[in-house]
Amino acid sequence: MALTLKWMQAHAPYMPIATAGLLALLEGAGEEAAARWEVDRAGRAALQIETNLDADGVAAVIADAPWPDESRVDWPGGSRNGAQALKPLLKATGQPLQTFRDMVAAAPELEAATLRAIVTDGVLDSEGLPARSRLLRGVKSDLTSAFKPPRRFAGDEFAAELRDGLTFRTDAKGLGLGLVPEVQTFGGTTGPDPASIDAYSPLLHALIWNGIVALPPVPVMRGRTRMVGGPLASGSDVLSWPRWRVAVGLSGLRTLFSLAEVHADEPDLTHLSRRGIDRVYRARAIPLNNMIAVYRWGEEIAAGAGRR
Q: Model pTM?
């Protein structure tokens, strides 16, 4: 049995993250699940989620999944106290690295994973602060986004979006996370349609945040420089991801995302096709100001002959 997400677009920068988030949610609920891209004879591609659940069942898993609770985190001083972002909070302690490690060590599993998804202690920035995930370039208030789900989180709405496509709603600033080209969430200068500012999809927000937690930042070496990376990071401001035609679970998906050839300057599909990959996309972060950048639609940088 498969759930077909016809609305998912392979060149959307949120696609690999949201897919990882959906698999993580299903596997976390004890459901076997895998994902693959199916292409018909007309070249139309659709994301297939292989699961024993229908859209209502998958929606129920998403709606029932626990959300991180800030009251379960041992914040410096005893509370988050209105702090909107993790790095400034850590900086204010004067011992950011040790404070972060103590917070993670004391937190329950979900809250610890959420903190590790925001920053990594494997790389420090110029101020000695744990480096931030490349997937959060479009998020100014990472703590607010991580610990405060949107008001409209309901199973019936998730099911409708799974079946019929994303429905973008207003009133939740910043939930596009800089990964959703369909909406402009960071001010009137980012797009031609002011009405789309502050728009978000409840389903996509849930999947993206769970995907970010499932794809935490890690330290990598670029030449002699230690940098923050991750399965999708090809560079400090570049994300790359494949379109894959073989069914894989979350662990297999992480492996495909991390293949060195996916992140090469010119990916070689002769090699990647053996892993079931027929497309590679790449997007660069476009700065809006000194704090926020967004990823637009991915550019197709490698494609198999005769395939769409």
A: 0.91
Residue ranges of the domains in the chain?
Answer: 2-67+149-303, 70-145
Question: Which residues have C-beta within 8 Å of that of residue 51, sequence separation ≥ 6?
Answer: 1, 2, 3, 26, 31, 32, 33, 34, 57, 58
- 3 state DSSP class of 207: helix
Per-residue pLDDT of the chain (308 residues; tens, 9 = 90+): 899 999 999 999 999 999 999 999 999 999 999 999 999 999 899 999 999 999 999 999 999 999 999 999 999 988 888 898 999 999 999 999 999 999 999 999 999 999 999 999 999 999 999 999 999 987 878 898 888 876 666 788 899 999 999 988 775 555 556 888 887 444 434 444 444 445 778 899 899 999 999 999 999 877 777 889 999 999 888 999 999 999 999 999 999 999 999 999 999 999 999 999 999 999 999 887 776 788 989 999 998 754 44
In the chain the beta strands, taken as DSSP E runs, fall at: 2-5, 34-39, 45-50, 119-124, 130-132, 218-222, 225-229, 233-235, 238-244, 277-287, 293-295, 299-303
Cβ-based neighbours of 214, under 8 Å, separated by 6 or more = 20, 21, 23, 24, 250, 254
